[in-house]
Amino acid sequence: MSPARKRTVRLVLALSAAVVLASALIYTSFSAANPALSPTQLLRQAQPGRSYQLTGTVEPGSVHRMGGVLDFSVQDRAGTRVVPLAYTGSVPDPFREGREVIVTVQKQGSRFVGERDSLITKCPSKYKTAPPSEKQNL
Amino acid sequence: MAGFGFICLLLALAVCAYGIAASIYGVRTRRWEYADSGRRAMYALAAVLTIAGLVLELAFISNDFAFNTVADTSSRTTPALYRVAAVWSSQEGSLLLWAWLLSLWSSLALFLTRRRLREVAAYATAILLGLGGFFVGLMVFYANPFSTTTPAPPEGVGLDPLLRFPTMMIHPPMLYSGYTLCMIPLAFGFGALLARRLQADWIGAIRRFAFAAWLFLGIGILLGARWSYAELGWGGYWGWDAVENASLMPWLTATAFLHSLMIQEKRGMLKVWNVSLVLATGTLAIMGTFLVRSGVLNSIHAFGGSTLGVPFVCLIGVLIAASIYLVVSRREMLRSENRLDSLLSRESMFLANNLVLVGLCFVIFWGTYFPLISEAVTGQESSVGPPWFDRYTVPLALVLVLLSGIGPVIAWRRATLANARRNFLAPVAVALLALAALAAAGLAHKPLALAMFCLGAFVLAVVAQEFVRGTRVRRAMAGESVPRALASLVQRNRRRYGGYIVHVGIAVLFIGVAASSSFQHASELQLSPGQSTKVGPYTVRYVRPTASITPKYDRAHTGSTVAFGAEVDVSKNGRHVTTLSPSEGYYASGEVSQGTVGSLIGGQPVSHVSIDGGVTRDIWGAVEPNIETGRLKKIVDAGNRTLSSDEAIVAIGLLAKEYIKKPPPAQFHFIVSPLVMWIWIGGLIVFLGGLVAVWPAPSTVRARAAARIRARSPRDLVRA
User: For residue B557, is pLDDT > 80?
Assistant: First the structure.
């Protein structure tokens, strides 16, 4: 085999390997991904056994701790639909009633269970009240 | 003062505009005095931004709440040390920090290249000033750090308590130094392409800056990980969060080009690849900055709800388009001078390392931006979690560590069997011994961790062998003592041996990551005083509750009003090991609606984690006390009704007493993980190795000085 031909073969092999790996990556990302849903969407389309990323705010007055389980409800921004769920695992410091959270949940029977350690509270820098500059604009 | 600060910004913008025009005019018309003037504009920018930074810093130190950024991110109760660092906790302040660091590092780079690479440096000056102007422009038009409110509020909101942590003070300057240093290779790369001067000399000029960028970025990432581990109440150091990933990506591509630049210098190969990596690293650094600021992705760290997305997207678009255009249009000049001789050579190992690093970067890029990608493709925003990242990054990391052992000792051009035997026999034997010992110790059920330990042992053995051989040669040649031979060995080839030390650090770090993530014991449960639980081989017992009224007596000195915690006894087989004292700090919220007492503790509670660190294992504990019980609530309510804000602290005292007397059960989180300390030690070794490699060797400094004297004397003779 001539050196030029050898190089071409090598290049084709390397490129096909890269394409195969990239397709595996893309395929698994789509199949392993959890859809991000609001409470309204979750209640409409959740199927048992699948994981979803639930985003919304913690409903005021809904937080209760029973042993190692944290019960709370996530509501839409408008506050219309509410998803109550049971969660175990670490709770970020900024977790509060009324704060925006992201949590991975699964439907088990008729209720929702949070995946262990999946709770994220959005943006700790936003816990403050509207800064003076924004107040001025209001 | 605020007006003066803003004038500084306007001046900075003008300086940038002038400098860009002067540099480009100078290089286009070959009137180099204009290019020099453009370079001096960069020094002027550094000076003006230093003054602007000082104005803002002064406002923070003197609690000038007329400044909106001060009122939003600082307060009188924020400890003085953290007030100084609060400057860069806001969007506006961090933009100023970015621009300031960029101007400083650029000034240094341009100063050092002032007598070389005239054309390339002139273009680079224009590009660096353009980037500086972009950030100053953002401050002037979108996020002014000097905006004010009159009358000034009497008290500020306070620095986010989560950020009141020592490493958090230096994390942003380190990370931003890394990001801004990435701009220097980017600018010189663009400069070399624009000036069509693509020999290796521009690479020589920026190599040290590229290395410094890599080093600072790495330290910044590690400090962030340390903060996450020791301050956030979840006990992890890496969570594949979007912002963490954003800083890791340019670090990976920088690691790649630091290696492939060597091939270009030695063999004149991989020119397109190198210049593309340099440009990609710069662009990824800008994207990292953008990700934190734009709020496009959900992250725990990001500045939310920002309006800076559009200008950043434009800048990134321009960078990508310019990179592609320039590389494609100059491709003829970027031809390789040599070809790969063999797949078993140092060149091909470096190439493989580059492919793995870029592959890692691509995996992380895909996972990080997946929410945007999936929304564009399927219309449904989805995201991938840590397991997805682990599936790809763990095997790639294993290959990377293996290559970091092979790369330094395999021969250039073509490795022979004799050469391979000479270099790899002992290290492979060490790795196999480690494998046998660890398997005998019962670690075979975690094959990936086991593989990482063996590969780590392999790398350590390779480097040790190199040091031993080098020292032996020096001893034979110069007859020096062992320590002296070792020191002169390193001193005479700092880059090479500094690089080896970096490899040792990386191996140690990865061993720490593999051990702590694979062999961790964790327990989360509610305990009352006197109760105990098992965490791995340890028994932890909640001895008694603690309360400290602060800010004066706050153990962590973070300015909380009150901290409730626990004393926890840790024992193993009945013998006392250590005492942990985790607590949770409660901070003032400043919200009147919570009442006089309620507002003193109504802010965000923050865990003060307690860690007993050791070389073999860390015992990590956090507590979340329950202060929402009936009796404690009653005290707050009664205080709210009867006490003025001056007297409210009395109720906090009562609250603490009541908590100690009848403590409600508290929620605990304990983690025992082995070798976490190795991560930080590995980071430290990398840092030391980096310093060795990046520090100018005394011999070259002396040689340069001598050359200058020699160069001067004939001139002096002529004059005389």
Answer: no
For residue B718, give the amino acid letter. Answer: V
Can you tell me whether residue B576 is helix, strand or coil?
strand
A123/B366 CB distance under 8 A: no
Query: How far apart, in whole angstroms, are the C-alpha atoms of residue B582 and residue B667?
Result: 11
* B141-169 pLDDT, tens digit each: 988 999 998 888 888 888 888 888 888 88
- As a whole number of angstroms, the distance between CA B140 and CA B385 comes to 38
Q: Where are the beta strands (DSSP E) in B406-518?
A: none
Provide the pLDDT for residue B697: 64
d(CA B36, CA B618): 55
Q: Which residue of B has its CA nearest to A35?
A: B382
Looking at residues B26-52, what average pLDDT do you find?
A: 96
The pLDDT value recorded for residue B216 is: 94
pLDDT digit string, tens, across residues B194-214: 999 887 788 888 888 999 999
Residue B298's pLDDT is 57
Contact assignment for A65 to B667 by CB distance below 8 Å = yes
Query: Stretch B295-304: mean pLDDT, rounded?
Result: 55
> Residue B342 in contact with residue B329, Cβ under 8 Å?
no
Listed by number, the residues of chain A in 19-38 with a beta carbon closer than 8 Å to a beta carbon of chain B are: 21-22, 25-26, 28-30, 32-36
Question: Percentage helix, strand, coil, to 5, in chain B?
Answer: 65, 10, 25
Write down the mean pLDDT value for chain B: 88
What's the CA dihedral at B687, B693, B696, B699 to 10 degrees? 130
φ/ψ of residue B246, rounded to 5 = -60, -35
* Joined tokens for residue B178: 């890394």
Name every chain B residue with its beta carbon within 8 A of the beta carbon of A128.
Answer: 72, 157, 160
Taking the C-alpha atoms of residue B521 and residue B535, their distance in angstroms, rounded to an integer, is 6
The C-alpha torsion from B308 through B137 and B110 to B191, rounded to 10°, is 70
A87 CB neighbour count, 10 Å cutoff? 25
How far is CA B692 from each of CA B210, B257, B461, B473, rounded to the nearest angstrom?
15, 19, 20, 21
Q: Is the ipTM value over 0.85, yes or no?
A: no
**What are the sequence ranges of the domains in chain B?**
1-161, 521-678
B66 three-state secondary structure: coil
Residue whose structure tokens are 């190692």 = A68
Residue B622 pLDDT greater than 50, yes or no: yes
pLDDT, one tens digit per residue, over B338-378 is 777 777 888 888 889 999 999 999 999 999 988 888 888 88
Judge contact between A114 and A87, C-beta under 8 A.
yes
Dihedral angle at the C-alpha atoms of B4, B6, B12, B17, nearest 10 degrees? Answer: -130
**Tokens describing residue B420:** 């391979």
Average pLDDT over residues B580-599: 86
CB contact under 8 A, A94 and B604: yes
Q: What is the DSSP letter of B644?
A: -
Mutant choice from A93, A134, A136 vs B, greatest count of B C-beta within 10 A: A93
List pLDDT tens digits, range B168-198: 888 889 999 999 999 999 999 999 999 998 8
Largest CA distance in chain B: 95
Nearest residue to B372 via CA among B260, B281, B317, B297:
B297
The CATH code for residues B1-161 is: 1.20.120
Q: What is the pLDDT of residue A82?
A: 87
List the single residue in B72, B381, B387 with the smallest CB-CB distance to A131. B72
Give the pLDDT score at B305: 52
Instruction: Determine the Cα angle at B328 with ends B282 and B17, to 5°.
Output: 50
